[in-house]
Design brief:
This is General secretion pathway protein M. With about 180 residues, the chain is of the alpha+beta class. The protein contains three helices and five strands. It folds into two domains: about 70 residues; about 100 residues, Alpha-Beta Plaits, CATH 3.30.70.
Length: about 180
């Protein structure tokens, strides 16, 4: 009987082993998958955090871009503006500002500009004649205009006149405005 019991126990042990072996292999495989998942999460974690930060920063970045666009309108004409027309308009604006301030315009000319960092420069060269006060008044009036008018170069010479209480100045100025390229 002992042999029979021994055989029965061996049979039961073999049957349990046959049942537990696949379960054990499945558990080992599940542990390996869990380890791979942990490694993947560790590798993806910083990227996910970076993307979440970008997502959270989208609204402030959009607002900043809109504010920068609005400020750019203060300093440059839109790309849809005609460059030739802008040169003529600038020349008229400069003449009107000079006339309002009592500055004599001896001559003015639209000159060729050069592109710079996404902007086109539209320059006008002017020769002006006046006393210092009216020249300051004209330049202050131009500083308040939008889009901005830039004084790129200035050459001032005093005129020699006898008996005048205040000296008249002869001024060569290169003014310009900017236009966006796109």
């Amino acid at each position: 009987m002992t042999l029979l019991r021994h055989r029965a126990r061996l049979s039961i042990a073999a049957a349990l082993l046959c049942l537990l072996l696949p379960v054990g292999l499945v558990l080992i495989h599940l542990f390996e998958l869990a380890a791979q998942a942990d490694e993947t999460l560790e590798a993806v974690g910083p990227r996910y955090a970076r993307l979440a930060g970008l997502r959270d920063a989208a609204a402030p970045v959009t607002e900043a871009a809109a504010a920068a666009e609005a400020r750019l309108e203060r300093y440059a004409y839109p790309a849809s503006s005609n460059a030739d027309r802008l040169g003529t308009d600038l020349q008229q604006r400069l003449r009107a500002a000079a006339e309002a301030a009592g500055v004599a315009v001896v001559g003015s000319q639209i000159v060729a500009g050069k592109p710079q960092d996404g902007l086109d420069e539209i320059p006008v060269s002017m020769t002006l004649e006046a006393e210092l006060g009216p020249l300051q008044q004209m330049l202050q009036a131009l500083a308040e205009q939008a889009p901005a008018v830039y004084a790129d170069s200035v050459n001032i010479q005093a005129q020699r006149r006898r008996g005048a209480s205040e000296k008249r100045l002869n001024m060569q100025v290169r003014f310009s405005v900017l236009r966006r390229q796109s």
